[in-house]
């Protein structure tokens, strides 16, 4: 099992506890739990996709190496340091950044319905359509 900690900033109204911890402290915390962290951070979807794919490959290779070593030396009781991924992306990532003059992405509003009443508000309908088409469903 490969643990992934997804830090995306906000819970319902405020930043989460772990996202408030400085990078060095977060790294020390999980090192203390026995993990080697691999940080995947950013806000550009294509670049993040590539970073995440490369990190997953690296972690799987690390897991296989640990398993091979452990199986070859069952008498060695040294605790292995397993990989984990710390994924840090904006809350509401890929949502419209702003709707009706209100910040949505990386803000508590991303937990709400980000686009109000697209059925009767043609401008909001266009925003919703652009957002959905950004996922390239075709």
Structural class estimated from helices and strands = alpha/beta
Report, as a whole number of angstroms, the end-to-end distance: 33 Å
For the biggest β-sheet, the strand order reads 1-3-2
Q: What is the β-strand count? A: 5
- pLDDT < 50 runs, ≥5 residues: none
Mean pLDDT: 90
Helical fraction: 25-40%
Morphology? elongated
- Helix count, DSSP H or I runs of 4 or more residues: 4
What does the oligomeric state look like here? single chain
**Total domain count:** 2
Give me the strand/helix succession: EHHEHEEEH
Please give the largest β-sheet. Answer: 3 strands, parallel
Percent in strands: 15-25%
Radius of gyration, Cα only, in angstroms? 20 Å
Note down, in words, how this protein is organized.
With about 140 residues, the chain is of the alpha/beta class. The chain folds into two domains: about 90 residues, no CATH class; about 45 residues, no CATH class. It contains four helices and five strands. A three-stranded parallel beta sheet has the order 1-3-2, with helices on both faces. A hairpin with a 2-residue loop joins strand 4 and strand 5. The longest helix is centred in the middle third of the chain and has 28 residues.
Characterize this entry briefly:
By secondary structure, the protein is an alpha/beta fold. The protein folds into two domains: 89 residues, no CATH class; 46 residues, no CATH class.
Record the SSE blueprint.
Elements: E1 4-7, H1 17-20, H2 23-32, E2 35-41, H3 45-72, E3 82-88, E4 98-99, E5 102-103, H4 122-133
Parallel strand pairs: 1-3, 2-3
Antiparallel strand pairs: 4-5
């Amino acid at each position: 099992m490969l643990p992934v900690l997804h830090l995306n900033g906000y819970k319902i109204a405020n930043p989460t506890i772990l996202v408030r911890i400085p990078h060095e402290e977060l790294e020390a915390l999980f090192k203390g739990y026995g993990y080697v962290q691999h940080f995947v951070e950013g806000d550009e979807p294509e670049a993040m996709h590539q970073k995440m794919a490369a990190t997953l490959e690296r972690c799987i290779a690390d897991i296989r190496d640990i398993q091979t070593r452990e199986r070859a030396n069952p008498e060695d009781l040294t605790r292995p340091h397993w990989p984990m991924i710390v994924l840090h992306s904006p809350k509401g990532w890929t949502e419209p950044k702003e709707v009706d003059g209100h910040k949505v992405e990386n803000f508590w509003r991303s937990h709400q319905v980000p686009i109000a009443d697209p059925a009767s508000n043609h401008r909001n309908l266009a925003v919703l359509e652009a957002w959905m088409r950004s996922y390239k469903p075709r």
